[in-house]
Amino acid sequence: MRCYLASQLGGALKSPQIRVSVLAMTSITNSRTGSILVIGDALTYIVSLVLTLTVRYGEVPSKHLLAWHAIPFGILIAVFILVNFSAGLYDKQVTVIRDRIQGLLLRVQVVNILIGVTFFYLAPVAIAPKANLIIFFVISTLALLLWRMIMFPVVSHTRKQSAIIVGTGDDLEDLYKELNGNRKYALIFRERVTPGLTTDETVKLINAAVKRTGASVIVADFHDRVVESAMPFLYSMVFSGIQIVDASKMYETIFDRIPLSMVGERWLVENSGTALGNRKVYDGLKRVIDVVLSSVGGIISLIFYPFVYIAIKIEDRGPIFITQERVGKNGKLVKIVKFRSMSGNDHGKYGADGVSLVTVTRVGKILRNTRIDELPQFWSVFRGDMSLVGPRSELPTLVGIYEKDIPYYNARHLVKPGLSGWAQIYHENHPHHAIDTEDTSDKLSYDLYYIKNRSLALDAKIVLRTLQILMKRVGR
Fold first, then answer.
1. With CB atoms 3.0 to 4.6 Å apart as the test, which of 29, 166, 333, 347 could cross-link to 220 if both were Cys?
2. Radius of gyration over alpha carbons of the chain, in Å?
3. Domains contained in the chain, CATH given
4. Under 8 Å between Cβ of 220 and 227
5. CA 341-347-348 angle, 5° bins
6. How far apart are CA 48 and CA 50, in angstroms?
7. DSSP code of residue 275
8. Bridge partners, residue 386, by sequence
9. 105 vs 30, 33, 140, 318, CA distance in Å?
10. How confident is the model at residue 21 (pLDDT cuts 50, 70, 90)?
11. CA dist 334 to 106, 284, 302, 383, 451, Å?
C-alpha cells in the first residue's frame, strides 16, 4: 500500500504548491492532541467565566446569573477557539516547542480582547457592567498559561516524542544539539540520518531508522535535493501516523533566524513578499508610522543637539556631524547623517588588515552606548531613505565585499534599512569597524528572518526591545 501511494503521488508531489500543502498538513498536531487542546481551552474559558462572576459579585454565581452570561460568552468562546486555531495554537509546532507558547498565547489574547470589546460595546448585548469582560480576560489569560504550560503536558502524555532528523550540515547539527540538549522541548532526536547518493538508498535509510527508533516525527531538510526527491515516500508515511516537519521551519522557530544553508532562489521568491505585492497594506501603514514617529522623534531630539555640540567641541574641536553613503532599498545609495563618534570618517575604506584606521572618541563611546549618535537619522526616516525598523544600513565598500563572499547577501536590500532591526537586538557578535564575513553571515540569517516575517507586530516588538536595551545601558 505504501509503495503504491508513493508511486501514484510521485509526479504530483514535484509541484511546489502540492509540496507546500503536504508540509502544512503534516505540521498540524494529530487528532488526539488537537482534541485535548480544544477541549482544554474551552473548559478553561468556561471556568474563567465562573471565576470572573465569583470575583465580581463576591459569591458563587447563581443559575440565573450564569444563564444571563451563557449566550454572549458562549458565542465569544467559540470565536476565541477559532482565533486560537487560526493563530496556530493547535499546531504541532507549538506542542513541541513549549517556550513559544507564552508569547503566542499573549498575542492571541490581545486579539481576543479586541474582539470581546467590539462585541460587547457595539453589539446589542444586555450585560452590565462590562467590567466583567476585563476581569474575564485577566483570569482567562492566567488560566490558559497554567493549562498550557503545566497541565497539558501531563494530560497529553507527550513530554518527549521520538524523532529522526534527515540531512547534513552545520545548521542541522545545531538543531540536533539544541533539541537534545534542552528539556524545554517535547521532542528528542533518536537518530540522525545522512541521505544516501540516490533516492532509493535514502528511502531505505529513513525507513530503517524509523523502525529502529520507533520515531513518530521525521524532521527533514527538503533543501537537500536527494531528500526532496524522497517526498513521495515521506508523504506515504503520513498515513502511518508519522508527522513530517520541514527542518528549516523548525530551525527558524527555535533560533529566530533563517538557516543560510537552506536558502536559495526559490526561498527568496517565496518569502520576500515582493513578487505578489502582498505587503502593500503593511508597507503603507509602516510609512505612515515612520513619518509620524520620526517627525516627533526628530523634534524632541533637538534638545540633545546643544549638549552634543559642546561635548564634541570640548574634546577635540572637530566637526559635529559626519555624512556617509549607505546602501538602501534595492541597492540605491542614500546619505545618512550622524553625530561624529570617531576620530574621523573613513567611509568604510579600511586598511590592509581589514580594520578601521579611525578610533572611537571618549565622547563618541557615550554617544554610541546611548544611541544618541544616531538621532540625526530621524530625518533620513522622515525623508523615506530609511525606516525606524529594518536591517542595519551598510557602507558600499563593505557591501561590495560581502556580496562576493556571502551568498544572497543582497537580499537584505529588499527592504529599507532601519534605525534598529532584528539582527541588532538578537545578534550578539556585531562586526564593528572591521571586515568580518563570518559574523556578517550570522547577521544576515537574522535579517532574512525579519524580511520573511516582517509585520507591524514584529516591528513593535523590535522597537520595545530596543528601548529596553537602551534603558539598561543608560542605567549602568
1. 166
2. 27
3. 31-156 (no CATH), 160-255 (3.40.50.10700), 280-474 (no CATH)
4. yes
5. 100
6. 5
7. S
8. none
9. 20, 17, 11, 52
10. very low
11. 39, 21, 22, 11, 20
